[in-house]
Specification:
By secondary structure, the chain is of the alpha+beta class. The chain has seven helices and ten strands. Strands 1, 2, 3, 5, 8 and 10 form a six-stranded antiparallel beta sheet that branches. Keywords: Membrane, Transmembrane, Transmembrane helix.
Length: about 300
Amino acid sequence: MCLSLLGGVFLFVGGPDSTSPRSFQRLWDSGHIVLFFLWASLLTLTIKQRPGVKRHRLVVSLVLFSICLGAGIELIQVMIGRTFSWGDVMRDVIGTLLAVAVFLRKTGEGRDVPLVMAWILIGVCLMVEFTAFARVASDEVLASLQFPVLSNFETPFEADRWGKNSLGRSRDVSKNGDHSLKVRLLTTPYSGVGLTYFPEDWRGFKWLTMGLYKQSPGELELHVRVHDAIHTRTGNRFRDRYNETFTVHQGWNDITVETNRIRKAPADREMDMKHIQGLGIFAMNLDDEEVIYIDDVALTGRAPVR
């Protein structure tokens, strides 16, 4: 009982933020399954003590309970500045179904085909959860091993480090190796991608380098931005981060940024090079859509740690 109440508190207090490792975010999300398993187990024991309760009514009641309570929790989270997640509601339902299936099996009421199908469904859902966690955890290990290379797109899950706005890894062109990241730039005011998940200590390197490939003829202005943890906590002000514009041409373009320029970029302080949290590449107000490719993003040139 105490554990389930404590878990309810954690739905609203603590937890990962936008800068937390993806593995921690996935584990935290999976806590919905555990919490609703505990809550549904307590409710199942309470309801089954009442005479005449039919199994199908028990299952339907608990599933509706988990959907309504889960959606209600997500709405409250929106009110306190978080986001609504249907994925979390689905995890709530999975935890509830798992509790019902375990209880019915223990009471000997669950040896028929519907319960077997429920176990299969639960198993598939849990496997999806585990696979998602294994995917991000393995890429975090690879990112650590690759550093100071930030992305060369030669491993399967590197595109996930760049958010959801890219078209994924591509074999169309590459600067080195077999793959690059393909990005479609739209005609919206801002369009691009951002590297969010990477080792954040950039001290001891002289340059940030990358290859940018422009598919079509002509010139294109691309903006590169870098920010640290302080920038994230203090309002994301334009003058509090590194911003620079580069003109790229058809074919491969080598972009090199001296890390001292990044360090000195904020107007009122120095960038915290030990806690870099984001690298963005984007275009602004394009007349027509463009396709670019990104490859070999890395820190190079050892320098004394400041």
